Every structure is written in structure tokens, then in C-alpha cells.
Amino acid sequence: MATLSPSHSPKNLRRKGSTNRGYRARAGSHLPPHHSQESHDAALHTIRSFLKGHTSYDAFPVSFRLIVLDTRLNVKKALQCLLLNGVVSAPLWNSEKSAFAGMLTVLDIIHLIQYYYRTASYDYAATDVETFRLESLRELGVAQPPLLREHPSSTLYEAAKLLIQTHARRLPLLDNDSETGHEVIVSVLTQYRLLKFISINCHKEVQHLHLSLRKLKIGTYVSATSPSEVPEGRNRYHPIATASLNTPVFDVVHMFSERSISAVPIIDEDGVVVNLYETVDVITLVRLGAYQSLDLKISQALGQRSPDFPGVVICTASDSLGTLLQLIKKRRVHRLVVVEGEEEERNGGKKGRLLGIITLSDVLQYVIGEPGIGEGVEKEDSTAEASTLSPSQP
Fold first, then answer.
1. How far is the CA of 82 from the CAs of 25, 85, 87, 140, 350, in angstroms?
2. Domain co-membership, 226 together with 175
3. How far apart, in whole angstroms, are the C-alpha atoms of residue 196 and residue 326?
4. Could you tell me if residue 148 is inside a domain?
5. Does 41 map to a domain?
6. Is residue 232 part of a domain?
7. What is the number of structural domains in the chain?
8. Does residue 256 fall inside a structural domain?
9. Is the N or C terminus of the chain more exposed, i.e. has fewer CB atoms within 10 Å?
10. Which residue numbers delimit the CBS domain (predicted)?
11. pLDDT single digits (tens) 125-160
12. Is the peptide bond before 248 cis (omega within 30 degrees of 0)?
């Protein structure tokens, strides 16, 4: 696991095989000598002013690729394109109208998988997906892809506000061709890219964001502090969806679809986090038509995961926002699983037990200052990217 501070840091939980817990590697960070609310607030103010003075163009990398999918493309080819290029979403383009048509995300595929699993045979699904077009997804009841967009010259602050207000993980940036007047997809601004831009260009201010995640109420946390407080029939870790190594894959697919989330913590009988199952893991199972794999248990499915899976990033509630942003600068992180640490253990807790989840939406929402933090609801920005705890996701 990777860490957020010398004593309490995010960690990267690597797995060798399907169930073992692997090892933990620590990554130190530097904290300022004085931990005051005033310096923390001043740093936030400076970061917000910085975002208001820079445009989305400024956050573009020097070199990048843009993958755009025609709505007439069949689902299988679109999925292969996403996987081959290492991305989990892409803008859609209606070539007949020469117009932007929204975004295709992994959750769209999850909804499609759920539809086939419940209404058709495996053979029918494998055959139909060969010819089924992206434009037909809406016929199955899959929600219309958001037509959210922004101009590249808009400020990063306005772009961030739009991401937060619409619960999206990525914002398509569109301009108009000066000759034809048609829309042109320029790029896609993701939450990760925006937060990384902050961490790189506001290094001094990030170092002063030293207050703990617990104090700042960033993330979604379990509502019950002890098993005795859990209402009958409710998940001990409500409102966070969880699974065990014996949970069938499709049960987790249902969680993804119904709750619009892209990762579910895998816990043992004591609630200790042992792994994470992501939407990308499901896509990997079915990309060759192996729909029968949805009947596997999570432990079996994890055994088919790529050996270069980078691990699950965890932290404790005592870690600071600044060190979390420093981690984002170094690694491709999209969420962290919050677990009980030494502080909770001293108070009768169990080290490593699930405590909460922090998504990039949570972090961005706090940094920008939009309302909604600490409301006790799961705020999975489910377009996610996985959206996952895997640093490998774009």
C-alpha cells in the first residue's frame, strides 16, 4: 500500500493470486511544521484563485491521444477499442448529423451485460453483441449518455464546478470549426487530470493542506460505529456496497448497475479489506464473450485478473488532504479505500477494517468548495473510470 504521511499514509495493497493480501510499500511525504486552520484555508483560497485564472487548455498534456467512437460502431468493437487503448470511456460521435452524441463509459457496458444476463441466453448475447450498435443502447433502457460539454477556453474552476454539479468524472471539451461551423471534440478533461494539474502547479499550497480527512469530512463512511448499531437486515458497512470472496460476480455487477458505482471493496469476515472488484474486471471477463464467467465467485474471478494489476490504494482517516494530492501527482489514483488504522485500533477497532471510500469527486468537491461534502451518501462519480482504486486507470 502507498502512504499519505510518514505515520499515516495511503497504501497500495498488491495481490499475488486471488486471495492473499500481498505486501505494503510505504511512500513518505513532507508536511509543514505548523498545522493551523488558517494556513489550510489560505492554501485553499490560493488554489481556487489559481483555477479561476487558468483555462482547460492549460491542463492539456503536451502530447495526448483522443479516441472518439462513431455511434454506428458495434458494441464489441467499441469495447475492444477501449481495452486496447487502455481507456474506460470515450466521446461518441453521430457521423450522420456531424454532432457530439455524449460519452460511452464502462457503466454503459455494465448495464448491457446485466440486460443480457437477465433476459437472454449466453449464446444469444455472444451473437448479438457482434452486431449491436452503440446507438441502440438506449433501446435497452440504458440511460442516455450525458451531453455535458464545455469550451476549452472556460476556466478550470468553472469546469470543476460543472463536473461536481453533474456528478460526472469527465468533461468533453468542444469547439466549433471556423469553416464548417460544426462541433469539434478537442479533448476530455477528467477529474484526475484536473487534480493532478493542481498538485503539480500548486505544490506549496498543497503542502499546507495538512488537516486530516476525518476533520475535513472528505469521503463516504460507514454509518454505524459498532455492529450493535446496525438495523436488522442492513449491511454493516452501509452506505458502502461490499462483497466477500465468495460473492458471485453477477451480484457485484448488479451493485455496479443499480448504484452507478465502479468499484466494490472485498472484505473478510472481520471487515478487513482484502481486495477491490472493479467494473474493468468485469469487462475483462466478458470481452471475448465469456458471459458464463459472471457465475464465478469473486475469488475465482480475481485469479483471472492481469498479473500486472497495480493494487488497491488505501488510507486512514488520519491522513491529510495534502499528502493525498501529492500521491495523485505521482500515481494514477482514482479512489482510496479508508480503513481503520492504529488510532482506531487503540480505541478497540481492527486495523485494516473498512471505514470508508474517498473518490476523486469527493476531493474535487472539497477543493472547489461546492456544497455536499459530508452528507453521508455514496458519491461515486459513475462515468469512474473505476473509476477504481487502480492507478492504471486513465
1. 31, 5, 5, 21, 40
2. no
3. 9
4. yes
5. no
6. yes
7. 2
8. yes
9. C
10. 143-205, 234-296, 305-375
11. 556 656 778 888 777 666 665 578 899 999 999 999
12. no
Shortest CA distance to 365 belongs to which of 193, 163, 202? 163
User: How many degrees, rounded to 5, is the angle at CA 179 between CA 173 and CA 184?
Assistant: 20
Q: Tell me the whole-structure pTM to 2 decimals.
A: 0.81
Which of 171, 196, 221 is where one domain is finished?
Answer: 196
Query: Residue 185: which H helix or E strand, with range?
Result: strand 183-190
Q: Taking the mean position of all CA atoms in its chain, how far away is CA 333?
A: 8
Please report, as a single letter, which amino acid is at residue 18: S
| Chain-centre distance for alpha carbon 368 | 18
Query: What residues have CB less than 8 Å from 69, skipping those under 6 apart?
Result: 78, 81, 90, 91, 92, 93, 104, 134
pLDDT digits (tens, 9 = 90+) for 38-93: 999 999 999 999 999 999 999 998 888 899 999 999 888 888 888 888 788 899 99
Other beta carbons within 10 angstroms of residue 26's beta carbon come to: 12
Domain boundary among 196, 228, 245: 196
Domain that holds residue 220: 11-34+213-368
Angle of the 37-52 helix axis to the 191-201 helix axis, nearest 10:
110
Neighbours of 224 (CB within 10 A): 14
The 10 Å Cβ neighbour count of residue 310 is 17
Same-domain status, 239 and 340: yes
* DSSP assignment letter at 142: P
Burial class (CB in 10 A: 0-12, 13-18, 19+), 47: buried
8 A C-beta contact, residue 240 and residue 356: yes
